[in-house]
Amino acid sequence: MSRYSAWSVFKNGLTGNRGWERAWRDPEPKPRYDVVIVGAGLHGLATAYYLAKNHGVRSIAVVEKGWLGGGNGGRNTTIVRSNYMMPGNRFFYEHSLKLWENLSHSLNYNVMFSQRAHVSLLHSPAARDAAARRYNTMRLTGSDGELWDLETLRREIPHLNYDNARFPIIGAAVQRRAGTARHDAVAWGYARAADSLGVDILQNCEVTGIRREGSRVSGVVTSRGEIGAASVGLAVAGNTSRLWQMAGLGRLPIETHKLQAFVSEPLKPLLDHVVVFGVGGTHFYISQSDKGGMVFGGDLDWYKSYAQRGNLPIVQDVAECATSILPCLGRVRLLRHWAGVMDMSMDGSPFICRTPLDNLYLNAGWNYGGFKASPASGWYFADLIANRRPDPVIEPFDLGRFNRGLNIDERGAGPDPKLHG
User: Fold this and answer.
1) 134 near 85, Cβ under 8 Å?
2) CA–CA separation, 354 vs 289, rounded Å?
3) Is the pLDDT of residue 10 over 80?
4) Which helix (H) or strand (E) holds 312?
5) Are 60 and 257 in contact (CB under 8 A)?
6) How far apart, in whole angstroms, are the C-alpha atoms of residue 40 and residue 236?
7) pLDDT tens digits, one per residue of 335-370
8) Which of 38, 171, 183, 331 is the one with CA 20 to 30 A from 52?
9) At what angle do helices 370-387 and 42-55 cross, to 10 degrees?
C-alpha cells in the first residue's frame, strides 16, 4: 500500500487521479484465522489494526454482515471527549483522546479530528459545583478542564440564548482538547491501515452461527461459509445479545435501544464548539460539521428496538432543545435524521472482557460513548485477545462487576434499567 502525502495528491492531480490504488482489498474468506473479529465498525476495525500493529498477529479476519462502517460507525454525532471522572472510565477515555490526537498520522489517513472544545452549559450553582468536582478530578489525573463564567461564555459563544432562556445559563464546563472527527473517515482509515498489515475485511459476510466445542469456540458460520478461528471477538454494538445467544450463553445485562441523530441544511459558520446541556429532563448536544450542517442529538427513544430509523417524538424533543438554546435555528430546515442501535448496559459503562468460553471475547455495552472510545477500545480489546488477560485499565469492565456490587455510573451515559420498553 502506498502512503498518502502532499506529493502523491499533487502528482495524481496532474495525471487525472488515475494512479490511486484501492484503499483496501475485497478478499475471499480463508478456511481458518488466528483471530476472527465479528463487526467491521470502528471498534472491530480498530481491534484488528492494533492486533496486527501492536501484537504482530497476521492471520486476522473482520467479518461484517453489510459494509464496513455501515452500522453505528456511520450513525453518530462524531463527538470526541474524555471528561469522565469515575475510576476505570477516567484513564480509559483519556488514553482514547491521546490516541485521537495522533490518529491521522498513525493511520496515514486524515480522520478530520478537530479539537474545537466541548462546552457543557451550567444552569445552577449545584451544577457548577458538580462540574468543578469532575473537572478538578480530570486536572489532577493528567487531563485538561476549565470552568467559564457567564462573561467568558458570552465572549466565546455570543449567540446562545442568554436573555430569555427556558433554562438560564450561568456558565460552562469546558474541555478544550475535545472536539469532533469525521466518522466515515475514521472507519476508512482503520480499514486501510489494517488491510495494509494483512487483515482480511470480509464484507457482506453475515454471521449466522457460532461453532462450539465444549467450553471453546471453534469458529463462526457465515453467509459465505464456515470460518475456523483460534479466537473470536464480538464487536457488534446493539446486536451483541443476538451473537451472545448464538454462542449459547443466555442473556446479557444490556438492553438494545435506538439513538437518533440529526443534521440540518448547510449554514455559514455559526458554531465553533461542541455545545451540550442537560437539565430539567432534557439532554442535548450540537456542533457544526465541515459541510455546514448543524449536527445534533438528544435522548434515546426509550423503547427497545433494532430499527435504524427514528420517530417523531424525538424529532420534536431535540428541535425544542435546539431552539431553546439557539433561537437563530428556528427557521432552519432539517435535512435528514437516522438512528443507531445502542447496547445499553445497566450502569452506562462498557464490557471489554473474556466470556465464559475460553477463547470468546466481548466488546459491548457502549451506550452513548462508542465513537469517542473507538481508539482505546480497539487498543485494549486487541491487548486482551493477544494476551488473554485484561490490562489493569479495563479490569473493571467485566461482566462480573454487578455481582461484586460495582457500578461504574457516570450518569448521563446509561439507561434507567427496566423502567422503559
Assistant:
1) yes
2) 38
3) yes
4) helix 312-325
5) no
6) 8
7) 999 999 988 888 889 999 999 999 999 999 998 889
8) 183
9) 40
What's the mean per-residue pLDDT of the chain?
Answer: 93
CA–CA separation, 27 and 199 (whole Å): 10
32-41, 81-90, 213-222: least confident range? 81-90
8 A C-beta contact, residue 282 and residue 127: no
Non-local CB neighbours of 258 within 8 Å, separated by 6+ positions: 300, 301, 303, 305, 307, 308, 309, 310, 339, 340, 341, 342
Of the CA atoms within 13 Å of residue 63, those in its CB half-sphere come to 30
Phi then psi for 26, rounded to 5 degrees? -125, 75
Task: State how far the Cα of 325 lies from the Cα of 263, in Å rounded to an integer.
Answer: 16
Residues 37, 220, 343, 318: is their CA dihedral positive or negative? positive
Q: Give the contacts of 5 (CB within 8 A, at least 6 positions apart).
A: none
Question: Is the distance from CB of 111 to CB of 182 less than 8 angstroms?
Answer: yes
Strands (E), 68-215: 79-80, 118-122, 146-149, 171-175, 179-180, 200-202, 207-213
For β-strands 274-277 and 254-264, DSSP reports them as unpaired
At residue 275, does pLDDT exceed 60? yes
Distance CA 399, CA 408 (A): 12
215: its cell numbers: 467450553
Tracing cell 460552562 back to the chain, one arrives at: 172
Parallel/antiparallel/unpaired status of strands 274-277 and 225-234: unpaired
The total of other beta-carbon atoms located within 10 Å of residue 389's CB is: 10
Percent of residues, the chain, with pLDDT higher than 70: 97
> Any idea of the CA torsion for 220, 225, 228, 234, to the nearest 10 degrees?
-30
Cβ atoms of 219 and 247 closer than 8 Å? no
Interval 159-196: pLDDT, tens:
999 998 888 999 999 999 999 999 999 999 999 999 99
The per-residue pLDDT for range 107-165, each reduced to its tens digit, is 999 999 999 999 999 999 999 999 999 999 999 999 999 999 999 999 999 999 999 88
Question: What single DSSP character describes residue 394?
Answer: G
Q: Distance between CA 187 and CA 42 in Å, rounded?
A: 6
Question: pLDDT at residue 374 above 90?
Answer: yes
> What are the cell numbers at 264?
440540518
207-234 burial code (b ≥16 CB/10 A, e <16): beebbbeeeebbbbebeeeebebbbbbb
